[in-house]
Amino acid sequence: MRRMSAFLRPSVHVIPACLIIGGVIVVGLHAGLVIALILVSVVFACPSWKRLPSVLNCGDAKSTLMTASPDCRSTPMLRRAKLVRALQSPKVKWLIIASVVVLIIETTGLYTMCWETSYSRFTYPLEVNARELLRALEEGRSPGVVPINSYKRYRFKIRNEQKCAEVNGTVRLLLLVKSALKHTAQRDAIRRSWGFEARFADVVIRRVFVLGTGKPEMQDEVDAEYARHRDLVQADFVDAYYNNTIKTMLGFRWAFEHCRKAEFVLFVDDDYYVSVKNLLKFVRNPWGLSAADSQEENTPAPFIGDGRLWAGFVFPRSRPMRHRWSKWYLSLDEYPFSRFPPYVTAGAFVLSQPALGDLYQVAQYTRPFRFDDIFLGIVAHKAGLQPLHSDAFRFWGRPETSHEFDGLVAAHGFDDPELLVRVWSSRRSRARRNHVVPT
What we know:
By secondary structure, the protein is an alpha/beta fold. The protein has two domains: 9-107, no CATH class; 130-433, Spore Coat Polysaccharide Biosynthesis Protein SpsA, Chain A, CATH 3.90.550. The chain is 41% helix and 14% strand. The chain has 17 helices and eleven strands. It has helices at residues 2-8, 15-27, 29-45, 52-56, 75-87, 90-107, 110-113, 130-138, 162-165, 184-192, 219-229, 244-258, 276-284, 353-363, 372-383, 402-405, 417-433, and strands at residues 156-158, 171-178, 205-213, 232-238, 262-269, 272-274, 310-315, 343-352, 388-389, 393-394, 410-412. An eight-stranded mixed β-sheet has the order 1-4-3-2-5-8-7-9, sandwiched between helices. The chain has a three-stranded mixed β-sheet with strand order 6-11-10. Helix 11 links the parallel strand 3 and strand 4. The model is unreliable at 1-13, 45-57, 59-66 and 289-295 (pLDDT under 50). It comes from Amblyomma maculatum (Gulf Coast tick).
């Protein structure tokens, strides 16, 4: 029986491995990595553990059961002594080191990267001829393919279909602001600053805020806000971070169905500063401004090629995030390729009406993707639409100096409504002192 019980007792040499593996299985990679790091600290970073007498107060660390003090003859103390001795063995040290290395490689995504598919082999469902599909839809023919991603299944709780319909002629610019349901103060700040529709007498501008749904008690406030300003569009999806693609594409749907008069559409988050004046200059000549361009904001743009414009801050060769701790983590099942198609960051981008229509229609034949800017990059790749990069759409850091605002179209970092109004008012006052058109 003594031999059998000794056989059934696990060796103390495997305890560290069991702790690491158990942590991984029960609580995930995070716990496994933490346990491994603790064991490394125990073995390598705590010199007091290198001599058992200081820990156990049991005399010589190599003493036998017969020569150990009475306190050290108890079963718990012996087990503790065996565990500490096991942790000091070279085999266990290397086991811990190997475990830490494996966990780091796995959690940082280095292992996953080894199994990525080359971008040169990029495909994405549905695999259709997007140009032929668009041609069929334009001619009123059936494309012969069933949509897999129809955004028409969402219902508009606030449709606001008269926003553009009441305009005689065309709308030069539609400001389509993606806003969180509770961001009432941000919306008011935008209305008081860069989102004011009557800023230019000779330019027709329209503004709408796209919202999702939230807690039922907030709906009365939303309805009251719509009654006051008539500038909300709300659809019945939960307003959450990972639903940004839904929000963006429902903005596309609304513009496609109810504001086809808009020549250009700016999609922008509600924490952005926008210079509408510079944006109007930009869409006149997206490929480069000249001194003459600053005089007339309502002159048609001299487009090159097919007239499709999708512009903003472009990431041309961005890689998927394989780091498991990141909120942007993507598994190989979700996206197997080594990089993304070129895409414009979703915080602020401008589209011409032809580009908006093509992207919206091809998106319905494209498998959904969590991140809206990358999803649009995939859709644009299928539609043969190349994004146009412009540093006027600032991505890194909030502008601070007056020089940084010159020529700026949009900048992130204005989630404080009072800051937005203060900066915009300052820029407007400066423009008036210099006898130029306010921003």
